[in-house]
Design a protein that fits this description.
Layout: H1 2-14, H2 17-40, H3 47-57, H4 64-77, H5 96-128, H6 134-152, H7 160-185
Helix pairs in contact: 1-2, 1-6, 2-3, 4-5, 5-6, 5-7, 6-7
């Protein structure tokens, strides 16, 4: 799923018709292939195909919907500052937003939204200038990968890649565009110094 979303965002940045056609063709072929594997039972000994086909064709999210519901229930019982970071059995909600709500409540979610606003702003800045800042572009795709993973498998304190790459995106957005402002303020087009 992460790869699919990353390719989709990458195609938005490139915006080339031939790549869009290839991407859509590959998605259709992948779904047809998964359906054939599902109907014939070829992949029933593979955990990967079993879980993927179960999620797509049987609406079976491997128990995640019950974890999600339990997390929402904890939040509703403790809306302001949250309740538990984990369930009684040591499990978690498998969604970073629900996890933040259940463990820190509306107060924690407000802080997260403030943080995430800076991540999104820097993400969009870098994406708009991806040809100029290719290294930063790689970083935003790593962030996107872990953001998607945090929607289905992460929790608040074990999703350190999500937090790390989010902070890196903010930093890169700030550094790249601060350097651009310095260059534009220097009539010679240099970043700084006496040339």
């Amino acid at each position: 799923m992460a790869l699919l979303v990353i390719l989709f965002v990458f195609l938005i940045a490139i915006n080339n018709r031939k790549y869009w056609i290839c991407f859509l063709g590959a998605v259709v072929l992948a779904f047809v292939g998964l359906f054939i594997i599902y109907r014939t039972g070829v992949g029933e000994n593979s955990i990967f195909f079993e879980r993927l086909n179960g999620a797509i064709f049987e609406r079976n999210a491997s128990g995640r919907s019950s974890f999600f519901s339990r997390g929402i229930e904890i939040f509703l019982n403790h809306p302001l500052f949250g309740g538990n970071a984990l369930f009684e059995d040591g499990m978690y909600s498998h969604n970073i937003f629900v996890d933040i709500l259940m463990s820190t409540g509306i107060f924690g979610m407000a802080l997260f939204i403030i943080y995430f606003k800076f991540v999104v702003q820097s993400f969009i800045k870098i994406l708009k200038h991806i040809y100029k800042y290719k290294e930063s572009g790689v970083m935003i795709f790593f962030f996107l990968q872990y953001f998607i993973l945090a929607q289905t498998s992460g929790n608040l304190y074990l999703s350190f890649e999500f937090w790390y790459f989010g902070a890196a995106v903010i930093g890169l957005g700030y550094i790249n565009f601060t350097n651009e402002e310095i260059k534009s303020n220097d009539s010679r087009g240099n970043t700084a110094g006496d040339y």
